[in-house]
Amino acid sequence: QDSKKVLIVYYSQSGSTQQMAQSIYEGAKAVEGVIATILPIDKVQEEMLLESDAIIIGSPVYNANIAPAVMEFINSWPFEGKPMKNKLGAAFSTGGGISIGEELVLQNLIQAMLIQGMIIAGGDETESAFGASGVTGEAPFDKKELDEIFLKKGYGLGKRVAELCKSFN
Ligand SMILES: Cc1cc2nc3c(=O)[nH]c(=O)nc-3n(C[C@H](O)[C@H](O)[C@H](O)COP(=O)(O)O)c2cc1C
Q1: What CATH number is associated with residue 80?
Q2: For site-directed labelling of 46, which of 78, 89, 112, 163 has its Cα 20 to 30 A away?
Q3: Residue of the CA atom closest to atom 19 of ligand 1
Q4: What whole-number distance in Å separates Cα of residue 44 and Cα of residue 119?
Q5: Which cofactors does the annotated protein need, by name (predicted)?
Q6: Assign residue 80 a region: left if phi > 0, alpha if psi is -120 to 50, beta otherwise?
Q7: Is residue 107 left, alpha or beta, with left meaning phi > 0 and alpha meaning psi from -120 to 50?
Q8: Residue 52 has what pLDDT?
């Protein structure tokens, strides 16, 4: 059986969503027989999307919405013939404050992937049921590094998606 390919893609202006992406990558690559790749959205080529078995997408919260660059990225995906259908998808986000958009962004990313016909997975715990999200600007989480509590959700999401990928044929 060929190795399964998990692609982790993100947009990040100030590095927090990138930190979350990195923890997801660590979780995914810990699974044997899975090739994990991590890339900012502007480096993703269509061919990479098409050859991936799973795509995990991350966006910062911008005015309680997906960052426009991430939405543009998803809007650019091929749709004719639904080539993304039945790929596994998952979402992550970081937001400045608690409950001012993180969850909305996860939901919107999930909905966009469902339009593409993808199969959606959440994280490995109830606390990451819609994907992995983290708070970056409100106390006590207003530190340079993303808090361990959020990085752990990211790791668990990456690992779960990679394991699910392996169990799919
Ligand atoms: C234009 C703009 C709008 C934002 N709107 C929100 C918001 O509505 N809710 C929120 O929680 N954070 C908001 N933030 C904060 C970012 O989501 C937060 O700092 C995030 O962690 C940045 O991710 P990055 O470091 O990967 O760029 C906003 C930031 C910017 C630049």
Answers
A1: 3.40.50.360
A2: 163
A3: 96
A4: 20
A5: FMN
A6: beta
A7: alpha
A8: 98
Which of ligand 1's atoms lies nearest the C-alpha of 15? 25
- The count of domains in the chain is 1
Please report the pLDDT score of residue 2 as a whole number.
82
User: What's the gap in Å between 69 CA and the centre of ligand 1?
Assistant: 13
Tokens of residue 31, six digits: 């699974």
88: domain range?
Answer: 4-167
Q: Is the CB of 99 under 6 A from ligand 1?
A: no
| Residue 80 backbone dihedrals phi, psi, to 5 degrees | -55, 125
- Would the pTM count as exceeding 0.90? yes
Mean pLDDT by 10 residues, the chain (169 residues): 92 98 98 97 97 98 98 96 97 97 98 98 98 98 96 98 92
**Ligand 1 center–CA 132 separation, angstroms:** 16
